Amino acid sequence: MPHYFKDMPLKVVCMSLLTACIAVTDMKAQSDMTFDPYAREPLPVGAPTWMREILDNPTGVNYRKMDSLFNYWLATDINARVKTLDRKPAVNFYRRWMKAYRPYVGTDGYIHLPTMQEHIDKLERQNKRTANMPMTRAAGIRQWRNIGPNTTKGKGSKPKDSQACVYRLSVSPQNPNILYCGTEMGVVFKTTDKGKNWKPCNALHNFGGPIFALQVDPNNANIVYAGGGQNFWKSTDGGESWELQHGIVGRVNSIRVSPENSQHLTICTGIIKGEAGGFYTSIDGGRSYQLRFRGVCHDHELQPGNPKRIYMLAKPSDDYEFLMYVSDDEGLSFRQVKLPVSNVVAGRLAVSEAPNGQDYVYALVNASYMGMDYGPYGGQGKPYILKSIDAGNTWTDQTERTTYKATFSPFVDEPQGGQGYFDMIVGASPLNPEHVIFGLCSSYRSVEGGKGWYRETAIGGYQKSEGMHPDMQDIVVCGNDTWICTDGGIKYSADFFATPGEDRHFGIYASEYVGFGQGWNEDVMVGGRWHNGNAVMTDRYGEGNSLYVSGVEQSTGHVMLSDNNKAFFRTGV
User: Fold this and answer.
1) Which residues contact residue 189 at a Cβ distance below 8 angstroms, ignoring those fewer than 6 apart?
2) Pairing mode, if any, of strands 545-548 and 151-153?
3) What is the DSSP letter of 463?
4) How far apart are CA 408 and CA 389, in angstroms?
5) Nearest alpha carbon to residue 532 among 489, 490, 503
6) Which of 68, 221, 458, 544 could be 150's S-S partner, Cβ–Cβ 3.0 to 4.6 Å?
7) Mean pLDDT by 10 residues, the chain (573 residues)
8) 220 and 255 fall within a common domain
9) Looking at the domain assignment, is residue 498 inside a domain?
10) Structure letter (DSSP) for residue 102
11) Beta strand ranges found along 360-506 (DSSP E)
12) Collapsing DSSP states into helix, strand and coil, what is residue 134?
């Protein structure tokens, strides 16, 4: 027997060997799994019948055939072409599918996907090459550089939060001047002045997809974890370099680090290639991970002052709805607690750091009468804001639905829960646990534990567009400071948004252009952007500055050849 087993009881030795065998088997299964960059979603109401082929067999259809059908649909249906409200969901359904699989289309028009191991190997080769790029620059070889948009202005040169889609935020409790943010385009940015200026963390690093989760070590602002695409990453030098964590595969939805011991991590993951992920723990700073709960986990929080207690919203592998769970042993075991809502299909959680708020927990959830969940782009249903004041043991529904007083806006949020899991935030005040901000496509600020009339509580989104860009993505709270990120950028408040916030996204340049035009004799660039409408940049504005000129996700932007000072756009509705 090897020396390291000599003094161990036989039962412990057997368990250790069994655990090792399971881990090896699990890693082997992960490496043999097909990499699939597409997150399946339901077919929107009103979609053309040919799109059902994509729904039924997203990797088996002929890509070129689908593209021809899509272009014909746009050419013959003006409502699809300008993306009216009833056509926009179907147009976006197709474009997300198209974007995910475009790099994997073969000469035969069909989609050919690599294995997960081949995908990981390619990422690591690419990141290894780009790590040496600074030396190439020193040799005098010209490189691409960012020229904007770094900031966006609207009418009257007023700041406009139509800059970039930011998915996740994380602030250092140790130094609240330091934040990290992750974008839909798969870039992590860092600020050291509470968001006034941002710089990319190794802009050439390929995370493998959008940044779905982000967490700073509460004890060390240079250690940060990121869930990018279907990969999990760790940086120990403030984002300058990233190391792939091989124990986690799949979309990471939430990450937490124990404030009492930075070696202790907890991670929630979703679905990968039809297989459920689950809840993982690590007690060695990410060198190894243990699966403690198998299923689809949307979010989890640690109880302030007692990080051994964990609240988790998850759907077990053999169930159709999300349930609330509580652990008192740092995630080794969970017990289910009853919610006042059934058939939950999506949700986010929040706790309060307020002196008298340790036992407060909030949950923003969507419930569907059909009880069906469709992953990150699904989860639509009736929205509810729930509250617990006894550490998650019992819950009350704070939602109001009367003729004269409703919690959620009747535009998109109330009838369908916004865009489901894709757009959900909830954050509690660190000063008063009864103050809570929550949001879907619009955001709301309640000073009554979640209660309130949307006309009075709305602080942004479609219900109050002058306050904040629609589509809420994440919220972080630290002391008196609060940041909210949306499809348009980041808003900051020093009073928990009791008064309107201010833009804090200068330098976040991760815009996705779906149309582009350029001047011939003048330095003019125009184009339509995903989420953020049409923009113009000229040398007269100064490098990095752009002007927002309305529009909605149009493949547009045309500079007049004979007069480069004239540009034309299709704005949609």
Assistant:
1) 180, 181, 182, 183, 198, 199, 200, 201, 507, 508, 510
2) parallel
3) G
4) 22
5) 489
6) 544
7) 43 40 48 83 89 95 98 94 85 92 96 94 92 59 81 88 95 98 96 97 94 98 96 97 91 97 97 76 96 95 98 91 97 98 96 96 90 65 98 98 92 92 96 98 98 97 91 97 97 98 93 88 90 91 91 83 86 63
8) yes
9) yes
10) G
11) 361-367, 382-388, 396-397, 425-428, 436-439, 442-446, 458-461, 472-478, 481-486, 489-493, 502-503
12) helix
The pLDDT value given to residue 533? 87
Position of tokens 């065998």? 21
Pairing of strands 545-548, 275-282: unpaired
Statement to judge: residues 20 and 87 lie in one domain: no
Side chain identity, residue 189: F
Is residue 359 a part of any domain in this protein?
A: yes
CA dihedral 87, 85, 213, 31 (to 10 degrees): -10
With tokens 């109330």, the residue in question is: 414
Q: Check whether residue 45 and residue 169 sit in a common domain.
A: no
Give the integer Cα–Cα distance in Å for 250 and 17.
26
Q: Are residues 341 and 459 in the same domain?
A: yes
Residue 475, strand partner residues = 484
Alpha-carbon distance 449 to 172, whole Å? 26
Question: For the chain, how many structural domains are there in total?
Answer: 3
Whether residue 335 contacts residue 326, with contact meaning beta carbons closer than 8 Å, is answered with yes
- CA–CA gap between residue 383 and residue 344 (Å, rounded): 9
469, 488 Cβ separation under 8 angstroms? yes
Q: Where in the sequence is the domain holding 11, given as residue range(s)?
A: 1-29
The answer on 228 and 84 residing in a single domain is no
Q: Give the contacts of 167 (CB within 8 A, at least 6 positions apart).
A: 182, 183, 184, 210, 211, 212, 473, 474, 485
pLDDT for the residue 20: 42
Helix (H) or strand (E) holding 234: strand 231-235
Give the whole-angstrom CA distance, residue 268 versus residue 313. 9
Whole-number pLDDT of residue 318: 81
pLDDT of residue 86: 85
Give dist(CA 521, CA 532) in Å, integer.
27
Find the length of the chain.
573
| Confidence at residue 207, expressed as pLDDT on a 0 to 100 scale | 96
Is the domain of 364 the same as that of 254? yes
- The answer as to whether 546 is a domain residue is no
- What is the DSSP code (8-state) at residue 113? P
**What's the CA dihedral at 426, 432, 433, 437 to 10 degrees?**
-20
> 22 and 37: one domain?
no
CATH code: domain of residue 357: 2.130.10.10
Backbone CA torsion sign across 138, 139, 140, 145: negative
| H helix intervals, 33-169 | 52-56, 63-76, 78-82, 88-101, 116-130, 133-138
For residue 524, is it within any domain?
Answer: no
Lookup: tokens for 245: 């964590």
The pLDDT assigned to 490 comes to: 97
